[in-house]
Amino acid sequence: MTRGWTTYATVLAPPHDPLRPSWLCAQDGQAWPCDVARAQLAAEHGDALAAVLAEQLVLAAREMPNARPADLHKRFVAWT
């Protein structure tokens, strides 16, 4: 029961959107997607999550040209 409450509370938290072009979380300053953003994105996009995050990876790669591709993949897609 606690697990369900945690998930529900996380989804209702203020949106943890990225600040661009830094791609840091607007709420907590962590690398986006932070843990809360991941939960929110998973709840919102379900089975399409990997495709949505792959699109975000492309945008981030353009805006952070010095970022290593492997790091961006881990950050945006590997966890999905």
Structure, explained:
This protein is mostly helical and 80 residues long. It has one domain (2-78). It has helices spanning 2-12, 35-45, 49-63, 69-78, and strands spanning 18-19, 24-25. The protein has a two-stranded antiparallel ribbon. A hairpin with a 4-residue loop joins strand 1 (18-19) and strand 2 (24-25). Helix 1 packs across helix 2 (35-45) and helix 3 runs antiparallel to helix 4. The longest helix has 15 residues, at 49-63. Mean pLDDT is 88; it is low at 1-6.
TL;DR of this structure?
This protein has 80 residues and is mainly alpha-helical. It is 59% helix and 5% strand.
Structural descriptors:
single chain; 80 residues; mainly alpha; two-stranded antiparallel ribbon; globular
